[in-house]
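Field: COMPLEX_INPUT
Field: COMPONENT_COUNT = two
Field: RESIDUE_TOTAL = 527
Field: MODE = joint
Values follow.
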Amino acid sequence: MLLDILHDFAAFFQLTAISAVTWQMVVMWGVCGVLFYLGIRRKFEPLLLVPIAFGALLANLPTEGLITHRVLADGLVESGILTVHGTILDTGAFRIDHITGGLYDFISQGIKLEIFPPLIFLGVGALTDFGPLIANPRTLLLGAAAQVGVLATFLGAGLLGFTAQQSASIGIIGGADGPTAIFLTSKLAPELLGAVAVAAYTYMALVPLIQPPIMRALTTQKERKIRMRSLRPVSRLEKLLFALLVTVTVILLVPAAAPLIGMLMLGNFLRECGVTDRLLKASQNEIINVVTILLGTSVGITMAGENFLRAQTLLIIALGMVAFAFGTAGGVLTAKALNLFSPRNPINPLIGSAGVSAVPMAARVSQVEGQKADPANFLLMHAMGPNVAGVIGTAVIAGYYIATLSP
Amino acid sequence: MMLLAISLPEQPTLADNLQYQLTGLLVVLFTLGVLALLVALLGRVISAFEARRTPAHSPVVVPAPETIPGPVFAAVAAAVSTALGDHRFVIHSVQAVDPRLNLAWSAEGRRSIYATRQVR
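Field: COMPLEX_OUTPUT
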């Protein structure tokens, strides 16, 4: 009797998934632990890092019905394979009979079909006040100049042997814009999605540590004390027309940026028009929150150990730091250059660093650094101009890469 | 459509990459530069339009300043004084401040709101 029970228990044990655990999975549990620590304890972009870490944990467990792994010829493990079964009809049309796949095979279609990042942009637009940018349009140039980090990192990644598509995906980390980084990477180099997303969100949280030394090194005490003119009030009509102007201009010049810019400005238009309260609240809360959960876990689910534990992941994380540093420097130096042309209405160069996006963290860093030099100087609203301009700039450079590098 | 003409060779050299990146920088600067010009122009047009419309259509209506009642000032001042444990100060008079000075409060409020947004 006892032997039978033990025998049955041993038989049951063979049905468990314990024997399917690999060493890569165990190492990735440690990586997930670090991400949980950064997100929960250190509050590094927790809204994204926590779902990403949980998705990564799921990807590194021998799950059933959640994801469908497929080992590719080069040893890469691709997670999320939809298999469509159907019949080709006489007319040449294809009739879908049924589709097989795990839960995240379906959910992660939101990334593969490039749906989630633009939906996040809808919420971002609904949350963003472009008033400071409209009041001081010069700061758009700071948002453009901060893209130097993206471009410089592309060059560095190319020298290290990454393909052009991979280099663009790594470089975009310097844009400090998570949805744009995910959007571009899923389009050009989906195999790097997990590493790029983790690097982007981690560095965005580390902006208060990365930027200040660079800002201080590139400015004098006198420059840091510059007080900028108060921003003029911006009317609602102006904000509405701004949203339309950006939509039309950017899409005409860089059509590949249309999904991001279109949704960003749709969200902002809902915010400023004043007659769509329900839609605005949905964009600011329900939509962005639901999509953030699905986006985060879908990114995490790509971090299977076999795919993530590679030397190139460390290279990507190192290059991400380079991207942020160059972007910060580009913004600060451009602000100084602009002052040569308008000495009577100078820009405090500290707000140039906010051009790397990372809304609103980078703007707050400008404020804090400015107050260290002059406690009575308030740079926050001035810094919001280049900060939101950086969002547009990153979307434009992403559009440039997509238009020129898409297979 | 202009961008479709730009391409990078299969095995780009450093010079190819550099040229490609500089073109990208030019694209971003041009796009955002055009936007900056258009936004500046828009601001001027709207300002001129509103300045011309205001006297023509209706008399200037000065909105009543949003004043904080004097007793509230007194209560806040007393609370601050008590909280600081400093009883050297005596309130002699209460005056409403210029509403324009409230900008600092709005700025602080916005700062607090932005500080809670960490979505992206």
